[in-house]
Design goal:
Oligomer: homodimer
Order of helices and strands of chain A: EEEHEEEEEEEH
Largest sheet of chain A: 6 strands, antiparallel, barrel
Shape of chain A: globular
Distance between the termini of chain A: 24 Å
CATH superfamily of chain A: YaeB-like
Number of strands of chain A: 10
Largest interface: A-B, 74 and 74 residues
Number of helices of chain A: 2
């Protein structure tokens, strides 16, 4: 597997491994529609929080702007404390199958990581809802870890009964 | 909005609302690749559990079969207790923006629900990992609420710190 640089922003580090093909260049198996965009405070990658917890710590809210045809789908969402946001991380490469996270010593499989670089760059974010305006298609959320104008794929209500595994464990050095 | 039946399996109920277009018929904004398939005990919709909690209660494991090029991406996943599985619910219609769940009195927005019927039918499942075989591309999980041969889009490690909101609340009648 060649270890040549992919781009200035996403250099390949030692131990990392590319896919034999670039999923972005393949004939797709299924097609997505964008239902809106995130209005985020972050316009540069170096400013963007690396995960939701860090984003919430910044104390800056964000807005989800939903396109007109999809706004009726927000009806009833304001009864929930949290939502699950799925985004399309359109600025991430898709062809790295092993990656070495910053501050990690060894490369790990993409599916053991939450890196934006993955065959299907779908971002998953669990965030507190501040307010929902169905008519205008605006959801204010407590914070977000994606760049401004990131496309939105889906919003789901969060259910603690199935989604919250408080005692889930991870490797000591993950 | 016409309330004609869409299919025998997904009748439109009172209060439900269709999109003005069918996302499945649109030119896609982005393309997905399938990285594998779920081997599930459920081959008929009427047998399939309606959510992960019900699936785990059935006591039947399932397997995630990952295609060869993507298997290296599983390295390190076995250190986690739970994973997040994203599936492509390829047998669900995509054009219903308000829906009346079974046993519910009124219709609600699709994004306030976890129905498989949504503009981008991406299924989100938090499940306990039983075992991971990287070389064969097989993950055994404790249970699943999708039909056999459902395509897999992504696997992510589950982090209680950002994904588990144990005190998240929902409407009393949700």
């Amino acid at each position: 597997m060649a270890l040549t640089a992919h781009s200035a922003e996403f250099d390949v580090r030692p131990g990392e491994q590319r896919l034999p093909h670039d999923p972005a260049a393949r004939a797709p198996d299924a097609g997505l529609v964008f239902i809106g965009r995130v209005a985020s405070p972050w316009t540069r990658r170096e400013d963007c929080p690396k995960n939701t917890m860090e984003a919430l710590g910044r104390g800056k809210t964000a807005r989800l702007k939903i396109d007109e045809p999809y706004r009726a789908g927000l009806d009833g969402l304001d009864g929930y404390s949290h939502l699950i946001l799925l985004t399309w991380l359109d600025r991430a490469p898709r062809d790295l199958i092993k990656q070495t996270p910053r501050h990690a010593e060894t490369a790990r499989g993409t599916f053991a990581l939450r890196s934006p670089v993955r065959p299907n760059p779908i971002g998953l974010h669990v965030v507190p809802i501040v307010s929902v305006n169905v008519a205008e298609g605006i959801i204010e959320i407590a914070g977000i870890d994606v760049l401004d104008e990131t496309p939105i794929l889906d919003i789901k209500s969060y259910f603690a009964s199935t989604d919250a595994i408080a005692d889930a464990t991870r490797p000591v050095k993950a």
